[in-house]
Amino acid sequence: MRSFARLAVILSLFTIMTFLTSLRFKTQKVIFFGDSITQAGAKPGGYIVKMREALTQKGITDYDLVGAGIGGNKIYDLYLRMEDDVLSQKPDVVFIWVGVNDVWHKASFGTGTDPDKFEKFYTAIINKMLDQHIRVILCTPAVIGERTDFTNQQDGDLNAYSQIIRNLAQKWHCGLVDLREIFHSYELKNNPGNKESGILTVDRVHLTEAGNQLVADKMLEALTSK
Amino acid sequence: MRSFARLAVILSLFTIMTFLTSLRFKTQKVIFFGDSITQAGAKPGGYIVKMREALTQKGITDYDLVGAGIGGNKIYDLYLRMEDDVLSQKPDVVFIWVGVNDVWHKASFGTGTDPDKFEKFYTAIINKMLDQHIRVILCTPAVIGERTDFTNQQDGDLNAYSQIIRNLAQKWHCGLVDLREIFHSYELKNNPGNKESGILTVDRVHLTEAGNQLVADKMLEALTSK
Amino acid sequence: MRSFARLAVILSLFTIMTFLTSLRFKTQKVIFFGDSITQAGAKPGGYIVKMREALTQKGITDYDLVGAGIGGNKIYDLYLRMEDDVLSQKPDVVFIWVGVNDVWHKASFGTGTDPDKFEKFYTAIINKMLDQHIRVILCTPAVIGERTDFTNQQDGDLNAYSQIIRNLAQKWHCGLVDLREIFHSYELKNNPGNKESGILTVDRVHLTEAGNQLVADKMLEALTSK
Amino acid sequence: MRSFARLAVILSLFTIMTFLTSLRFKTQKVIFFGDSITQAGAKPGGYIVKMREALTQKGITDYDLVGAGIGGNKIYDLYLRMEDDVLSQKPDVVFIWVGVNDVWHKASFGTGTDPDKFEKFYTAIINKMLDQHIRVILCTPAVIGERTDFTNQQDGDLNAYSQIIRNLAQKWHCGLVDLREIFHSYELKNNPGNKESGILTVDRVHLTEAGNQLVADKMLEALTSK
Question: What ipTM does this complex have?
Fold first, then answer.
């Protein structure tokens, strides 16, 4: 009987350890779904790489970060490739960061996104992901031009589309990284000269080292704060 | 036994007649899926009403014509409401007539449709309908401006998007009413003054009585020529 | 000799009175040079008519107010018609109120005004008027949409082009009625619901009775405060 | 008296020779006034350099060819810099080649040129030059995209603005190099594959070696055919 009891104890411990190990080492796949900013984010110095490095430094091995950004993408493009590039990859978490081209392409190609369509296709993406029990974290578009006094041409639309995204995050209980707000606060402190670029962006849109760092910090916070 | 044979004959005849009757009177539901031109087409004097009248005059009762046009619609809008407004209605035939706003909204709102997205969403609509064994008939966008020398602002895009539609019709074995071509041929004969409007359109886009008649004739031909 | 002295006194008095009378009754021609908002401003209930009524009520007869607004005008249009509609009329004062279409036509026709060209043609107009010793009063474009949180599509550009105008007013020592600022302050107090229109505008751009009153008050202040 | 007669003859001959020499060697200053295509035209391999080389080869030294093209220029820009860059240089001949950006910037910046303004500012430039007795030669915009079936996005506008220029050339008795027509004819023969670029342009707009040669040939013909 004793040996049986011992066996039972050993087996129990083994089971518990296995369980704990699985808990400890269950890696979460995190996909970053977006445009050229995210495409660059997956390259050396980019915000996704910086997040990976920060996790390693902290000894956290729970996350597998995967970039899925394509230059020029609007909400329609995300919708069209969501099956192939996200859902079929079975992610646990998805960051959606889109909106700059939806606004920008109005002036630069005449093919921007109507606000009502932006909301409808964004909603469709969120719902597909929620169907798969993916944790979805929405991000507002940061900037097209870094001037702090709302004199950048697209400021009105960026503010409006960011509000659509904030409302969607609330409605569907998604996470939110409000990069529009975060960048604006940062610029108020760090852009006293009201410059168009050079602080968080190299060209009014794409991120400098400081820009990538700021995004990495805030996304990491959102990812691990759950 | 004789009475049984008689009964059998009667029953057979009855079955055959029922079958023939059903053949004869099986009404086909035809949905016209489009924008403001189709919305107007369902009103008195509109091309759908004219088609209905022509069918009645010919004593053809096989078709139930239903308008499903909404002003300002682009391919994205058709995609979003295709389930509610078309598929759920179980149509036998669908005419798709869209494209003017996809091109026009580039200049008038900055929210026109990129050609690659036009093709992709159009393809998705066609495939959903073919899944339901619907007979699909595509129509090219007619005109934005009636000048015959290709000096209307959107002529380049209208020609290009019409070509996309022609290619889709061929690829997916759909019917085609090439209104772009039909209108151009008509204008070459009937618009010697190279006028912007007043022949087939009242305002460069929406149809005059002659415009509605021309569309009705050509669509009826496509519908009944199968 | 006495009669001569008397004559001298009488003549002197007459001269002085004539001079004073001329001072008193020298009417100043004031031209309002602008777009559809100014065109409407010259109609019953419009801001120019309201200014005229306010002057009459105060018994001030010094000003002859003349509307010179044409719908859809941009800075280019003002430049092209400045000779015929303003300079040849020999005005004493000119209010220039333009900018809404320069910004708006970017999205609605693709033919808005580049900021550098806006500044250059505006400068050319100012200089032509200063050459004729006209008192020039510049006005910033008020609003395209009344939302107070800078989510109106054109807010970025309206802020930027207003800044160009403020800089021009300072550089060339012109008067300034900063309607962009005046409207924004008013909306912050009177538009708690963040509505798009209905407070100072009927349609996001053209003025309500309250809008015309606000503009009339501020322009009158600028005109008479010299 | 004889010696006087001889002197008279010699002097007469000298005068005549001087006159003939002046006729022969009076160099005409020719300015090419335009956009980036003309800016590139003044560089090695460009159409202006090719014209210079062709003249040298033929031993013609009558012309001094001067490039005055600036990238991105529209009719407004030519108007603003015509005094400094053309009139003050006292040219004998001016080629004006503009229009591509007036059309293109509609879609790429929202700041294209309205057709009525294009005509008015173009007219103002022509009249300033005619005032100075300059020989003015107008050129129509060639292409934005080389497809031959009028499916290039801007074909409608390019056709329309070219027609405005043709009408101006006729009205003001200017020369005309109808590059729109010339390129279209060339493409019909040399672009059987209906390609977007690679025949006369490297990028749908700027000229290949063949493009520069074609323009040089046609402009030289116009210049020397007077």
Answer: 0.87
